[in-house]
Amino acid sequence: MQRMQALGAVEIARVRIVRQAIAVDVPVRQLDALRALDGVCGVSPIRHPELPPPDPVR
Asked: How far is CA 15 from CA 39, 54, 58, in A?
């Protein structure tokens, strides 16, 4: 998580019972760097239906 935080990620949820997973809010420009971190198996962008679309320059 520290390496993700260095990329600007903020943890917003964590799931441990069904699978090892966390949800983070991270700047769009850091998605490739997040995917490249050791131990990251996948990155799946999601958007809450009540939130505005992400800022592409963030």
From this structure: 16, 24, 26
**For residue range 2-50, what is the model confidence (pLDDT) as tens digits?**
888 898 888 877 766 666 777 788 888 898 999 999 988 888 877 766 7
Both structure tokens of 28: 């769009």
**Angle value at C-alpha 3, between 41 and 40, nearest 5 degrees:** 0
| Rounded Cα gap, residues 31 and 50, in angstroms | 22
Q: Which residues contact 13 (CB under 8 A, 6 or more apart)?
A: 22, 23
> Torsion over CA of 13, 17, 47 and 4, rounded to 10 degrees?
50
Separation of alpha carbons 37 and 40, rounded Å: 6
